[in-house]
Amino acid sequence: MTYLIEMGVDPKLLQLSLSIPSSDIRYLTAGEMTQFGVTTSLPATNQNVTANGGNTPPTKQMLN
Description:
Blueprint lengths: L1 H5 L5 H7 L11 H7 L28
């Protein structure tokens, strides 16, 4: 419960998950994911990630 709160997830999500039988599956809607704090309503950005975390600027190609 503490971890959920630290991550900004609504503890009601745990309550919901415990109400579903272990033999069943319940998928969250996009609205529920936002409501419970699993995702944000901000649009995803398309960012390129490099192996070194993006700390090195791109190199210029030299033509001979």
